[in-house]
């Protein structure tokens, strides 16, 4: 995760010199009247949402499901090799389990998800924190993305599935496309 610390800015204005004559005001030079440029947005991949849920499977094991959404803040560069690490803690705030998932690439201005649906944990976690680390930002990447529509959760006898329409914007077939779904309730509570 990226941390930022704000520092207050204090301007110091010198006392005017005691003089009996008015001081001339210098004419601005072309450099003084140049149009200011916007400060570029730094390349960053930020965690924008995360959650977890637990259940007990038929063998009596405690199983955690977790998910995290990471946003590429760059408008011009893709970020590659993003690692999302979930850290699970028990009620005594002791770390009981970690799990990492990789995101190969997040295109400019887009978000992607990582998570797991079958992580066995030694005891019931009470909280989770997420760390995001990333590799390089690469310029010149296409900003064309797959789109998802008509997503629906379908209840099954033993588990639920998500059905959706994924539209490929490219002129060629894509094989082995991985889709990760994060399910939450109407209040935004992570379900799995």
Kindly summarize this structure in a few lines.
0% of the residues lie in helices and 44% in strands.
Q: Summarize model confidence as the mean pLDDT.
A: 77
First-residue to last-residue Cα separation:
23 Å
Structural class: mainly beta
Proportion in helices: under 10%
Strand content: 35-45%
Count of individual helical segments = 0
Radius of gyration: 25 Å
The major pleated sheet works out as: 4 strands, antiparallel
Shape: globular
Number of strands: 9
Question: What's the order of the H and E elements?
Answer: EEEEEEEEE
Description:
- The protein is mainly β.
- Helices cover 0% and strands 44% of the residues.
- It has no helices and nine strands.
- It has strands at 45-56, 62-72, 77-89, 95-106, 111-121, 127-133, 137-139, 147-154, 161-167.
- Strands 3, 4, 6 and 7 form a four-stranded antiparallel beta sheet that branches. It has a three-stranded antiparallel beta sheet with strand order 1-2-5, with no helix packed on it. Strands 8-9 form a two-stranded antiparallel sheet.
- The model is unreliable at 1-25 (pLDDT under 50).
Write the layout of secondary structure elements.
Elements lengths: L44 E12 L5 E11 L4 E13 L5 E12 L4 E11 L5 E7 L3 E3 L7 E8 L6 E7 L25
Antiparallel strand pairs: 1-2, 2-5, 3-4, 3-6, 3-7, 8-9
Summarize this structure as a short list of keywords or feature phrases:
single chain, disordered N terminus, 0% helix, mainly beta
């Amino acid at each position: 995760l990226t941390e930022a610390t704000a520092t207050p800015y204090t301007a110091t204005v010198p006392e005017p010199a005691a003089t009996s004559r008015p001081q001339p005001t210098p004419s601005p030079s072309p450099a003084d009247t140049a149009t200011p440029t916007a400060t570029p947005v730094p390349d960053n991949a930020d965690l924008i949402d995360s959650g977890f849920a637990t259940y007990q499977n038929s063998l009596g094991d405690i199983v955690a499901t977790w998910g995290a959404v990471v946003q590429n803040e760059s408008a011009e560069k893709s970020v590659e090799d993003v690692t999302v690490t979930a850290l699970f803690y028990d009620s005594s705030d002791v770390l009981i389990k970690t799990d990492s998932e990789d995101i190969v690439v997040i295109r400019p201005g887009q978000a992607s998800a990582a998570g797991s649906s079958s992580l066995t944990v030694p005891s019931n976690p009470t909280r989770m924190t997420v760390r995001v680390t990333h590799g390089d930002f690469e310029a010149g990447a296409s900003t064309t993305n797959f789109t998802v529509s008509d997503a629906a959760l379908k209840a099954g006898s033993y588990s639920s599935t998500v059905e959706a329409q994924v539209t490929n914007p490219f002129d060629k077939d894509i094989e082995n496309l991985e889709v990760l779904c994060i399910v939450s309730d109407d209040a935004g509570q992570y379900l799995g």
